Amino acid sequence: MAGKIIADTIETGAGADISTSYVVNGSAKAWFHFNGKNTVAIKSSFLCSSISDNGTGNYHVTLTNAMTNTEQVILTGTGQTDAGNYPTDNDAFVNFHDSNEVQYATRDSNGGSDEDSAVCCGAILGDTA
What we know:
It is a single chain. Helix content is 5%, strand content 50%. The chain has one domain (28-125). It has 1 helix and 10 strands, in the order ββαββββββββ. The chain is mostly beta strands. The strands form 3 sheets. It has a 4-stranded antiparallel sheet with strand order 4-3-10-7, with no helix packed on it. Strands 5-6-9-8 form a 4-stranded antiparallel sheet, with no helix packed on it. The model has no long low-confidence stretch (mean pLDDT 84). The chain has one helix spanning 20-25; strands at 9-11, 17-19, 28-35, 41-46, 48-53, 58-63, 73-80, 90-98, 101-108, 119-125.
């Protein structure tokens, strides 16, 4: 049997109260971590259904649930050409393609040319539709 929990606040173990709106509004609605080099594949994700390889350093991440619009906050990590290559040597750029798809692009931080990355990640904050 399905149920519902209704609460205005959550109490921490230390006895502090946290508004449930803070938890709902301040949580990532989707996040992703994928390999963008050679065989493109999701390593781990939350509410992301697929990754498309659209050419060198250009990917689309499809969300399981659409966002209310394309004016949400997107946080991104920088890409890497090889999984063990620290510090990162690629810059990552992310924007909404539409309300349920994000374009993710990686470029060489030295020359600015498009380049595939072994490590790609990001998170989306905002409202789902």
